[in-house]
Write a structure and sequence with these properties.
The structure is a homodecamer. The first copy, chain A, is an alpha+beta fold. Chain A is built from 2 helices and 4 strands; from the N terminus they run βαββαβ. The first copy, chain A, is elongated, with a radius of gyration of 15 Å. Chains A, B, C, D, E, F, G, H, I, J: Pfam families: MIase.
Chain lengths: ~100, ~100, ~100, ~100, ~100, ~100, ~100, ~100, ~100, ~100
């Protein structure tokens, strides 16, 4: 079951560059783990903004809440979640499995 | 180069169900063709709304404009486009090729 | 898995009172059936507006989309869906089973 | 008489983790007490946000104001209240008593 | 128990002046009756807009919904309701009884 | 001449509880004086928010500006003012004189 | 006493050019009369929009409501009114009397 | 050439009353000079807000930018500029010269 | 003197394709003439929307109003105008003269 | 391929004037370099605001992200990017080459 999230990061003014770098380092590790386990199907930078769009594949809302609140930088994020369903015009049940292009 | 689009469909009050069905039929064919040619990487229904989020892979803005304005229902859509860039935490250059999960 | 929905109904100017009444009649039957089968956990009128807040218990996003798009008046509704998770301060896993008050 | 509330929590930058934890501890106790006395009929986490939707059963607006302003974290919350009335399609007067599903 | 409502009237383009006048006539009668029975404590025109702010004194949300939906022009109104509670700085329990000014 | 105001209070993070209490004490005195002199016709708490709706009876805009900017907490308020006129459906010229209910 | 108004005109789709021209003709006469009597102190086109900003000098809110609702095109206008007071940095009580520039 | 500006002032929490007073003193001098030289045609307080509407007469956009950015408190202002053109219903080319009222 | 405009086109539901094509034909001629005379410095399609961003070089606001209201489709456009001034980091007074790139 | 960006600068309250000046100095150098290399086709001040509209010519979204995030003041900017395509009414493929005016 897929959800689209838009995440905007806002660090407080008082945070040092060192602390920011540490957060970003831990964020990268957490994000990578979610990708490797197939929970985070895709993540992209919104051009010009400290923000991303990302797509999550989870069992239910509770798992999604656990996944999102586990981000090291969660306390500094504004997150908006959109539940996604299969589109009637979709030619596949899974756009991420590499089999979409059939010709 | 990827773009995220949110498309909201608003049919005019006077449109007959038959005309709507015809639009939807042609829309499905057009959308399917875009998927088969690798331009439309994914499309999902926004739950509860006559809307979708979709991701396009195009050469440039002019191609994207051609692709979007080619939708049979384009005149009845509100479309918002977000340019996407590679995210520093992404573990792959292509989330749609089926090779993302490495374990 | 629970979702909160806010539904706002906007009938077109040209719809006759008779047609509206027919829609409302079928809507009531559909809504009642969803309540009897435990999908629609609660529905309340937003005071002063032709709108409701309602809570759905479904297996996944696809089922929710099926349930919502099945409303007879769906084409005349603006629906906004919010995924709900268990709250850390909740004293029960199910607020609708009548066992919440423990004293 | 029911009211839906959406509560968004925003802690100030200067608050220590220890103070936050203390607030959350007292909040949980207060919330639990409201649930046990039947004032707080349900509370759910908005997925991805430090926010909840909650439903209150009170005698009047003054009681609701007393209940809401009594939350230990009230000074750090943005609260939006929506008065709820019986919906014409509701099959029960009380969705929380466990008797909704009749089949 | 008091509620503040803001009501904005939007008549459809196709409504004749005669029909509008008939609605306004019935609206005035209904509004007058609510004032005489003490339900509608005050009503004022928002300068420059086809809108009013009005204050209602009702027993509960269901009564308010009945009162508001009873307006002859209800189908052409956008209504936003705000629940009001006693203000800690209020010098009286009832601002409408003519006894507020004490000097 | 009446004006409706909505006032939202936002205290800065650094303000001590003692200072807040002092402001609130002076605010109460100022508000009470305005009520006694008939300038402030009514004031109500917006349920769940550190905000009020209040109605002022003044000679002109300059007097209203003087009254509003005289609030001890004015620097910490967001104030939105709406000019009110007599409503064509009003059954009285003064809803606050205690003579509205005629039956 | 001055008020700033922003007026946006929206004619219905079905109105003929002849009817529009008739409205505009009567509007011009009404507007001119307001200028000659000193009620309408100034009126300017918002560049690129079918809208104006205008400044009114009236005795009270009721007079302003009468003036605004008297515009022939009032039913097709969205009007937002802002009450204006004397600014502490103003060097004159009347910016429209031609005596502002003192050097 | 005229422009309408709305200016909202937001002082930072840490600014002392003395510094504020100094800014306001310099602001008054600057504003007065603009009025005397005929650049600032009018300025009014928005009732209830730390904001003004003001009208500027300049040669071009660059001059307006110079004028606005020259305000001592410019760094603490949110400014929104609206270009104004002659209105077809205006009975004069200059509403500020004292010759508008012709009767 | 430059202005940025964003123009969104909304044709009424009842307009025939033939009429639309006629408008677009006349629009193209008018736009081309503005480009040839150096008034319209640039115009670009907003990808995915029936909208453009365009930059105008005019003597004053009145000329801009004349230019914009002269568009054949002006009655079907929502136009938002932003006055532009020279940027302190600009390396040229005219970005459109082909001499910007100096290396 | 062109993109329009609107950039709003918000410096934190604690930043010294010296630091601001240093940022602005480095910003000017970076911006000038982008102009010399033909990436930044134009940049203009939004009159009255600490903001600009600027147009970028890049190969793809990733390059744009690199360019924008390279601004020294990027962490203090809110940036909104709009992808631009060729407009059907454009008389040239390049409005910046100095050859637009053909008469």
């Amino acid at each position: 079951m897929l959800f689209l999230a838009r995440m905007d990061v806002v660090f407080p003014e008082s945070m040092t560059d060192e602390t920011k770098a540490d957060y970003q380092h831990r964020e990268k590790a957490y994000s990578g783990e979610l990708q490797r386990t197939g929970v985070l199907k895709g993540i992209w930078r919104v051009v010009g903004e400290y923000a991303n769009y990302s797509i999550y594949d989870v069992e239910d809302n509770d798992e999604l809440q656990t996944v999102l609140s586990g981000f090291p930088m969660f306390a500094y994020m504004n997150v908006k979640v959109t539940p996604l369903a299969k589109h009637p015009n979709a030619t596949t049940d899974d756009f991420f499995d590499g089999n979409t292009i059939q010709e």
